[in-house]
Amino acid sequence: MKSNVNVERIVYTSPTKMPNMDSHEKHELYYLERGKAKYFIENEIYQLEAGDMVFVPKGTFHRNNSEDGKGGVERLLFVFGDSFLGPDAEKYIEEMAQYKHIRVNKETLHKFKEIFAKIETEDKKRDPDYRELERLYLMELLILISRHRIKDAPTTLKPTHHIIQDAAKYISENYASELTLQSLSEIFAMSPGHFSKQFKKITGVGLNEYINIARISAAEQMLAKTDMSITAIARECGFNDSNYFAAVFKRLKGITPKKFSMISVKS
């Protein structure tokens, strides 16, 4: 079966949350038509307003929730793999993966909506060669994003959100250390109970689960790029028990670390 782009438009009439932090083997481009939403991608928190887009690179853990149920939330999601667009899209993918939160001027937003409509129409009608048209429209969309993306678009995070984001970054950078609720709450000047509650409330992920996610993300990179043993990688990533490491890896990635290592291309 030929590769294609999956298109999904959903309207929410009440606040919703992804049940768990998740990752996929394809890229996701999310457009918020109306309402408000919050995205937590790896260790970054993005507050989205109507007209914003966010890019989730393949294999990246993320979680989102709609926050404004009063007027409803409407979003459009495009899911596609590297093979669909080919090598010509690499530089645009890399740019979006670097910045993730995409905001354009309201004056140019109509150009994006026109492309959204074209892709949705092709996806619904599926006339001959519709995949090729979808590919061309999606490529046009990435080029327009690169051309019109507002550089250094301001983000409006509350002070507590900034602290929790800093904590998530700290965990991602110090995954091999002994990370505990007590030590992290001391670093970020909160009581353990308040820190744990705020971390879960803001990210949507429990502290221990996020520590595991950060460690598994690091392990995934090591498995793909080195010839270290699984036991050594588990130890390097902060796991004292290689069996527990394997169980967590399979739960989060859907594959054992051994199989992942076998299918990965070392570079």
Q: Overview of this structure, please?
A:
It is a single chain. The chain is an alpha+beta fold. It has helices at residues 82-85, 90-99, 109-125, 130-148, 159-173, 181-187, 192-203, 207-225, 230-236, 242-253, 257-263; strands spanning 6-12, 16-17, 27-34, 36-41, 44-49, 53-56, 62-66, 73-80, 101-102. Strands 1-8-3-6-9 form a five-stranded antiparallel sheet. A four-stranded antiparallel sheet has the order 2-7-4-5, covered by helices on one side. A hairpin with a 2-residue loop joins β4 and β5. α2 packs across α4. The longest helix is centred in the middle third of the chain and has 19 residues, at 130-148.
Number of strands: 9
- At the first level of CATH, the class of the largest domain is Mainly Beta
Radius of gyration: 20 Å
Overall tally of domains: 2
Structural class: alpha+beta
Q: What would the principal axes of the Cα set say about the shape?
A: globular
For the largest sheet, list the strands in their spatial order: 1-8-3-6-9
Q: What is the CATH architecture descriptor of the largest domain?
A: Sandwich
Proportion in β-strands: 15-25%
Fold-level CATH name of the largest domain: Jelly Rolls
Residue stretches low in confidence (pLDDT < 50, at least 5 long) are none
Question: How confident is the prediction overall: mean pLDDT?
Answer: 91
